[in-house]
């Protein structure tokens, strides 16, 4: 059989890794697929200086549209990132009847519905395994391995930068700013780390996972997003004393009222598997009605781990390239005419437990006064701890753990507690999940 020609858009970290894996493992890949896969056209800035592919065998260009318009290219691999240009290139490739592989989570989360509709109309595929959790095959697991299940919920550590920062804060007692600076020096965080530390990157990925899990459209704008920049070493230590660890989680849960989609710092019991995923590693825990909990763990970023997922998508595309479109695995796991209009709930309607920390005057009756406020809002407290007085001031830290409650109720109670004369400053609130 003739070789399948692939065009790469971008030869940076992931693009270079993809080209390297395709070249190094060419014989292994051909043995698995039954035909050769050849990189025939590559676009990238400063492409003439690259040393990864042989310019005598591969066409090189700085104009990415030359690749998507190349009649020999059957699969376009988009690895340039971003929203605008990447979308234009992907849509043009689809319009030209080419299959697409991408690692661009932002593109899929924000424009995925339009892209998938265009691909379905043209009878081509769009694959995006590398868009979520790097080298972990979570998309394939959700679309195929768990297809017989009703997914109840999923929770994931899906941003390695945030996980590295929280791990260092816990293990070494360092503060957020100090660890963030090191993460930037190590290349884990960008010069502008907003997408990582404020949860936007994780929200892109959660949006995709929720669509696969529940058969809903991609709705990034409805995903509640909260970062880790306000987490202090103090709260990390208190969580440890209570038998919990703070992780930055993306959580999607199906309830009777709708779907919860939320990204935020979360206390989880230290004995849970997710609590022990450290450093830059990623993990996703998925609960299906038939299989129960399954955990997917591995490298969430990096040149070759991400390239592993990109190449797997290329291989899957080649294997099914001659299969009629209506016989292929649906792009988002559910047939387009079976997508559901289940509502995504506002964060006020989410149900979870809470860790609360507040500074209170060190005098009798304050704890009773605080407890009375929570009781008036029908919020049950699981544990109440009063720490040693803060040196130099007449204040103590009160730590409260609540049972599960609606977020709106907790917000109202916190507002009343902060208004008490004996409470100084804002109440620190971190959500809790037991993931059982």
Annotate the secondary structure layout.
Blueprint (H helix, E strand, L loop, with lengths): L3 E6 L3 H12 L1 H8 L3 E7 L15 E3 L2 H5 L6 E4 L5 H12 L3 E4 L2 H18 L3 E2 L10 H8 L5 E7 L2 H13 L3 H10 L8 H4 L2 H15 L9 E2 L7 H9 L2 E11 L4 E11 L11 E8 L3 E8 L3 H17 L31 E11 L4 H11 L4 E9 L5 E8 L2 E2 H12 L4 E10 L4
Parallel strand pairs: 1-2, 1-4, 2-3, 4-5, 5-6, 8-10, 10-17
Antiparallel strand pairs: 7-9, 7-11, 9-10, 11-12, 13-15, 13-16, 13-17, 14-15
Characterise this structure:
By secondary structure, the chain is α/β, with parallel strands linked by helices. It has 3 domains: 4-135 and 303-338, 3-Layer(aba) Sandwich (Rossmann fold); 139-299, Dihydrodipicolinate Reductase, domain 2 (2-Layer Sandwich); 349-432, Alpha-Beta Plaits, CATH 3.30.70. The chain is 35% helix and 26% strand. The model has no long low-confidence stretch (mean pLDDT 96).
Domain count: the total is 3
CATH superfamily of the largest domain: NAD(P)-binding Rossmann-like Domain
Alpha-carbon Rg, integer: 24 Å
Task: Name the beta content range.
Answer: 25-35%
Number of strands: 17
- Tell me the overall shape: elongated
C-alpha end-to-end distance? 50 Å
Which range best describes the helical content: under 10%, 10-25%, 25-40%, 40-55%, 55-70% or over 70%? 25-40%
